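Look over this one:
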Amino acid sequence: MFNFSILGRYVPDFLSGLAVTAELTAVSLSIGLVLGLALALARGSGVRVLSWPAYAYIEFFRTTPPLVQIVWFYFGMPLVVGRDVSSFQAAAIALGLNIGAFLAEVFRAGIQGIPVTQWHAAKVLGLSRVHTLRFVILPQAARIVIAPIGTTVILLIKGTALATAIGTPELLRIGQLVAVETFRPLEALTLVAVVYFVATYPVAIAFGLVEKRLRAGED
């Protein structure tokens, strides 16, 4: 029989793990958004010295397991930078670089989804390429990419659980520790699953509302 009452005294621990998960998501997403947009612009620039490295980066990080990337950064970065790296830092960097590759393709698809006539019209008006991107293309592309970005954010929140492999005290790691201490793995992991749902479902709703509002603005 399930007995969740035994987990009552561990609620602060689960909340602490959730806070780490949220912080890890925020840091990784910040890295991923900036990097993803830069990679998308580089790949679509038509300049081979920019587009080919961007392509290689995107394909490498999209086709290698994020768990391997997290573990590599945790053990490999100290050798590269010459100083210790915390499990949180390694996980945040690895997840940020990984999610950046996926967001790059999302942004690239959004930019390519804008009719080429928009570029031509902006050129006729005397706008530079930078100003065209900033004031014409990207605002329209935002309406296209909001839904896939929402899905990517949800995947990132769940993906932070991989950081448990290097001991980051995020939600799943706390659940594992509680399971070992209480000998109640089913209850602990069930609670972890519920907390993940509570954390991700509002994100899905929020992005859905934003998408509807943006579409309403087009009408």
Q: What stands out?
A: The domain at 10-218 is CATH 1.10.3720.10 (MetI-like fold).
